[in-house]
Amino acid sequence: MSVKSSMSSRRGFLGLAGASLAAPFLSACGGDSGGPSISPSVSATTTPRIVPTGAAVASASSSSGATASASTLTTAIAANQARLNATTWTEAIGPALDISRFAKTFDTGFSSPDSLRQVTVNGAGGPWYAPIHATSGAARFASPLDKVSPFAIVDRSLRIRCEQVDGAWQTGHMQTCDYAGSGFSQRRGYFEIRCKMPVKGTMGAWPAFWLYSKTFFTDPTKTKAEIDVIEFYPGQDPRGHHSTLHLRPAAKPPANALLVSPWNAGCYSTVGSLGDGQWHTHGVQITDKWIIIYYDRVEYKRIPLLPEFDVAMFMLVSLQLIPAEAGVATGPIDMFIDYVRAWRTA
Fold first, then answer.
1. Of 52, 103, 266, 345, which is most buried by a Cβ count within 10 Å?
2. Model-level pTM?
3. How far apart are CA 209 and CA 199, in angstroms?
């Protein structure tokens, strides 16, 4: 996840059609998604602006075993970094997404009181686990078994609440894999949440929907991959739609590992309806060529699929508290979830 550098970020865990939208957007895409204070500089247009993706940049190949010389490995690492840095976002307003031919693979709704049983603790069977993530931000991620749970069923939806309990901030985070890697994950496909975000002006709120590579739990020799589908900061940036890709070095990298430092590529758009407190969908489609971000099932941006992201990924939903705004935040802060779903697309 990415926020302004003065804020804590979540690091402990871990052809287009020119269809117009009712809400205009501005975009500024690059190596970092920035944060609440970003001022977009690119004017809205319904014509896609294609940014060179560096397809001509040769992919780095690792040397064989421990026999590779230090100079060869250094060259390979530099080439790999060039490959990553040349991968950039394409900005566009695209066509509406047609899911009629997709096959649904995951579906959790929260329309009945019994739906709360779907949010469980580590190892308790899922489909959602909480809080299987190290605390970050200014609020502790609380368990559904705590004295005051951050999770409740309200008006046929799941409410995640950030509030002060006994003088300390707590909030909710949940994900579809537990510490053993058990639970739902999927390679490629379409992933979507339908939710109500905190309204514009809600200081401290940091809701997000994102994906993480399952190998984080199952293979410490693999690069860790993260797709932030949507991060929203309604207090200071009530129109800002932040999407970011992250790669982080493996916990136990092989001797010839090419990723030696974290990498990210973010895309910032403005969407006027983000902070209206109404139901909206946020989704990402991972194809054999692209990672495509959708808002209300309309494409907003895409980036070429890197091999590191072509892996099984699990879904996460968070409501964090931005440290820089904690002093002026007033609770409770709520996020409501109608459903979270996934489909196979091919």
1. 266
2. 0.85
3. 16
